[in-house]
Amino acid sequence: MAREAIHTGFLRYAGFRWAKAALLLCAVSIVAYIWHAPADGPNGGSWLGYTLGTIAGLLVLWLLWLGVRKRSYRSSLGSVRGWASAHVYLGLALVVVATLHSGFQLGLNIHSLAYVLVLLVVGSGIWGIAAYASLPERISRLREGSTREAWIAEVFDLNEQAIRLADSMGPEVHQRIVASAEKLPIGGGLLQQWLGPQPSGEGKLLGELLEQRMAGLRSQPAFDPDRQSTVSFMASQLQARPEQDLTQVQQLLDLLAQRNALIARINQDISLHARLQLWLLLHVPISLGLLAALLAHVLSVFFYW
Amino acid sequence: MSQTSMHTIAIVGSGPAGLAAAGRAAEAGVSHVLLEAEDHLSHTIYRYQKGKHVMAEPTALPLRASLPFAAGARETILGAWNDGVSALKVNVRYRAAVSGIRGTAGDFTLTLANGETVQAENVVLAIGLQGNLRKLGCEGEDLDFVQYQLDDPDEYRNERIVVVGAGDAAIENALALSARNRVTIVNRRDEFDRAKRDNAAAINKAIEEGRVQLARNAGVAWVRAVSEGSTGVIALDTAQGSSELPCERVLARLGATPPRAFVESCGIVFPSKEANAVPVVSARYESNVPGLYIIGALAGYPLIKQAMNQGYEVVEFIQGRSPEPADTPLLAERLKAMPGFTTVDAAIERIRARVPVLSPLTPLQLREFLLDSAVRVPQPGEVIFRRNDYSDSFYSVLDGGVQIGLDDQDQKGIALGAGQFFGEMSLISGRRRSATVRAGASGAVLIETTRSSMNKLIASVAAVKRVLDETFLLRAIQARIAPGIPAADLQNVVASAAIRQFKPGAVLFNEGDAADGLHLIRKGSVTVARNIGGRETVLAYVPAGQYVGEMALLTELPRSATVKAAVATETIQLDGGDFKALLTAHPALRASVGETLQQRIVSNSGTRDSGKATGGIVQFLMSQGVGEATDVLLIDESLCVRCDQCEKACADTHGGLSRLDREAGPSYATLHIPTSCRHCEHPHCMKDCPPDAIRRSPGGEVFISDACIGCGNCEKNCPYGVIQMGVTNPKQPSLWQWLVLGGTEPGLQAPVKSKAKKAVKCDMCKDMKGGPACVSACPTGAALRVSPEQFLRITQGGG
After folding, report:
1. What Å distances lie between residue B13 and B20, B276, B296, B400, CA to CA?
2. What mean pLDDT is predicted for residues B591-600?
3. SS (H, E, C) B346-414
4. Is position A7 within any domain?
5. pLDDT tens readout for residues B779-794
């Protein structure tokens, strides 16, 4: 007796029900397109063109509705997992339906803009699926059962320990360690988050808008630490200090190394989390752009008919 | 100042019960004295945090007392009582801890801690259950800088503080104080194994990092005040010898002495050794010692209003009056469904006479029992509960009869008549109903009682416990192992059966042991493990209601696997020899037991191969206490995109307070157990809920009803940290408003700030059509709720 699956991801949901539905939609559209062959060549103005256009337009509206459904927490209209599954596969099918609707007639106009936006939205969606498929497990592996909060607490602990140790090693060392403890290189701008731990980030490729959206994801302000130099400073102390202090210097170096490794880990964790959401910063705004372009496309077609 | 005059009534303890008694005595002009150990009234409520909102459950019960009481802030209530005590001219003696009560009705002598004595004709014991704080028990225990409570750790700075104790309170105080002070914690033992896991981890970390100093295996020898260098010195005895620590403060958190020893020393008898047993009192609140009355929490009535009513009534009884108990209208409401109902007293007498299991109860116990009960009059054939329902109430048959169906089709069954009872299986095992029960052909009149009330009764009345245990044994054997065999034939097997208790992790039997019998799991659950490739590998999880070791009934082979208790477990051990004799006498039974065994062997062989891969996960889940869960939220981290939809969904559907914390909690490989309610078989949170507000619904969900008084007991008792105190926000942000105009996104609304906090926890969205919101809102299918039985399926590749 086949056992009911308790646990499947959204891509495999209900035995690929929505993948099959999407394939069927594509197949029917392609067959109709080939069979139709109107006298003036395939275009959006034929009856099939209007049919495919209507399907594509309704699909876009429905795909956008996911944003509403996933926040309607009391809704019992299917599970969000089912919706996400259908969203992915029908979204992919949209490329085929929209392309056939265009009849491959593209130009520099509002109609083609809508088409290009469809491709961009679907493209960013594919990026999202790739991110969802690969990153979650990497986060778990990195975390090894711990949490970012615990790491940050540990960094503070290590800092305190380092400062306590440095207390007894003269004002110069003390200042150095306090300064390094006060400016921890955690988080950072969008690019730093995206690329992971890097030596100081510079350019802001994706602009101010995205930067603002990412502010909420950021856990700590950006900082360029010059942390390497604290370590090398301490390393130089190894030579400069009298023999009896060496164990302390070595201990301090160990603490700093431990702390910096942890910071690297935290930054990697932030980066992985940011990358899980980064694609949405394209996907959602472009979708809204698509909605506007779609409205303009539909209105203009009927207006100039 | 020794008091030689004879009082009519001496009242011990000035909590709500004692205070109300003294208030009534003062009002009625009865000679009395109210003895209070502290220097203020109502110490338990006095110790509540500032501004705490005190509730007045049960709302329906009228208050009958000479002092006012209504729900409100701690200060308002204490203020009103202080005013009332002055206005009524109550004779209070503060700092008068009673250390002994001797004498008989008409001539009691109460000895105080300072050696003075008080004479009284009657004594009302209203000391509650908090007990007295345990002191150091050595020289200097009462010095000014030695304290036994900590209200606000921020009050102390730059002090050397020695914290004595290793429980949760000591650890939490030591950690809080260590932020601004130099703290040494003194542990009598080697480890912090009495504390909650999180607390033990936190204190060990603090010790490792040097934030807190530890003196382990150490006892306090003496404390002395000094004039130079510090305020005092504390001397510790350790295995390495004794040492002396200078300090400014000693904080001893050693828990409280339960009042039981004191109560017993007064000659009062407890019905059983159970920790939650309460002394038996008559309908006039008189104990087995004539003239010695017990009211309030000590008598089993933990709510303020109940206790105050009893305080009033006990004075009336002592004065020879018989007021109608305040709960009579409530009882009438409960019992009026009984056919032929006339008066409450008549109805109670009829129940006592007709239901043997309830007849050992005193009239007062029976009243209390019936207050928590409902009369049900089902039509002939009507279903009382269905097999696999998650209800856990207990039914006594008053009239008519019921039919218990044992198999799926309800073909075979047992008929129960008036005076018998059912529902004890789920009550004891904490699991789903094992059979469907219908009203008999002539209908039935049933008394349905809640789990908590029944558990209280089992603890308090030994006769009830014995009858329930025996019935459980017989019915469990009849239902699970020997269906259709009449009770008479099972006599030998039942007589040789024993109830055995196992602590978590204890071994029922080891692989290779000689087989001596079968264990029917009555409560808790076990894991079955085999030694595969030199490592113990868990193969199966067996919950209550099932059995293990059945091979021993048919063969002489040694045990093929090691079975351990996953949580605190009780089993019924059946002796192999007696059972074999039974099988010889009943060939049909032999065949059916053989068939069951064959099926088990087949299903076990399937898990044997996969055991290697899954043993680690099952072991991890068990170590996290999932074995006692009925439904636990798991997150597959390989699918979890960390979007926190689950938390947002929970908050949005539950007044802005998410009852789960996705990120917190342990993980193993990619399986994560977030901090979220597991709906335990025997919920720890239910253990000590004064208004009995925590219930289990027929679907299995453990939820908190509106009767919650915000005492926080459940939050403390939950070992998994899934209950929080908070206030739900009735206003829900609008999705469309947020989409169009911005503002608060659904699921992210800020919680309400208020003092009137109540306990909130997961209710598994029992009232929502789509099931648990956390699961149905998960976009990737990472969140799932499972019962322990499903673990193996999940861990064996999700199929």
Report:
1. 11, 20, 10, 47
2. 76
3. HHHHHHHHHCHHHCCCCHHHHHHHHHCEEEECCCCCCEEECCCCCCCCEEEEEEEEEEEECCCCCCCEE
4. no
5. 999 999 988 777 666 5
Contact A132 B793 (CB under 8 A): no
Pairing between strand B249-252 and B146-147? parallel
Same domain assignment for residues A131 and A147 = no
Q: Give tens-digit pLDDT for A128-140.
A: 999 999 999 999 9
Task: Identify the burial level of B668 via C-beta atoms within 10 angstroms of its C-beta, where 0-12 means exposed, 13-18 middle and 19 or more buried.
Answer: middle
Query: Where does chain B hold its CATH 3.50.50.60 domain(s)?
Result: 6-131+258-318, 146-255
Structure tokens at B647: 């938390």
Per residue in A131-168, pLDDT (tens digit) is: 999 999 999 999 888 888 888 888 888 888 888 888 87
Helix (H, G, I), strand (E, B) or coil at B465: helix
Chain-chain contact of B776 with A140 (C-beta, under 8 angstroms): no
Provide the 8-state DSSP code for A199.
S
pTM of the model: 0.77
**Which B residues 46-75 touch A at CB under 8 Å?**
none
Whether residue A271 is found in the same domain as residue A146: yes
Query: What is the least distance, in Å, from the CA of A69 to any CA of chain B?
Result: 9
Residues A169 and A48 in one domain: no
A140 touches chain B (CB under 8 A): yes
On whether both A137 and A150 belong to a single domain, the answer is: no
Sign of the torsion angle spanned by Cα atoms B358, B360, B363, B367: negative
Spell out which residues of chain A touch residue B769, defining contact as CB-CB under 8 Å: 76
Q: Are B296 and B312 in contact (CB under 8 A)?
A: no
CB distance A8–B781 less than 8 Å? yes
Residue in B284, B283, B378, B370 with CA at minimum distance from that of residue B333: B370
Distance from CA of A152 to the nearest CA of B (A): 15
Report how far residue A277's alpha carbon sits from residue B637's, in angstroms, rounded to the nearest whole number.
16
Q: For residue B72, with 0-12 CB atoms within 10 Å meaning exposed, 13-18 middle and 19 or more buried, which class applies?
A: middle
Distance between CA atoms of A229 and A236, rounded to whole angstroms? Answer: 10
Give CATH for domain B6-131+258-318: 3.50.50.60
Query: Does A159 lie in the same domain as A99?
Result: no
Q: Are residues A131 and A173 in the same domain?
A: no
Nearest chain A residue to B776 by CA: give it: A79
Would an 8 Å CB–CB cutoff place B641 in contact with chain A? yes
Tell me: do A102 and A220 sit in the same domain.
no
**Facing residue for A73 by CB, picked from B640, B663, B746:** B746
Ramachandran angles phi, psi of B142, nearest 5°:
-105, 15
Task: Check residues B324 and B177 and name the one with the higher pLDDT.
Answer: B177
Nearest by CB to A6, from B645, B746, B794: name it. B794
Structure-block tokens of residue B520: 């029917």
A203 touches chain B (CB under 8 A): no
> Under CATH, which number does the domain B328-460 receive?
2.60.120.10
Assign domain B491-614 to a CATH class.
mainly beta
State the average pLDDT over residues B111-127: 94
What residue ranges of chain B are covered by domains with CATH 2.60.120.10? 328-460, 491-614
| Residue A26 in domain | yes
Q: Is residue A24 part of a domain?
A: yes
Adjacent-strand bridge partners of B447: B375, B396
Based on the structure, what is the number of domains in chain A?
2
Q: From the CB of residue B722, how many other CB atoms can be counted at a distance below 10 Å?
A: 24
Q: Does A45 map to a domain?
A: yes
CATH of domain B146-255: 3.50.50.60
For A273, name the nearest residue in chain B, comparing CA atoms only.
B642
- Helix locations, B126-267, DSSP H: 168-178, 197-208, 260-265
Residue A129 belongs to domain spanning:
13-141+283-303
For the stretch A244-297, pLDDT in tens is 567 788 888 888 889 889 999 999 999 999 999 999 999 999 999 999 999 999
- Tell whether A191 and A253 lie within a shared domain: yes
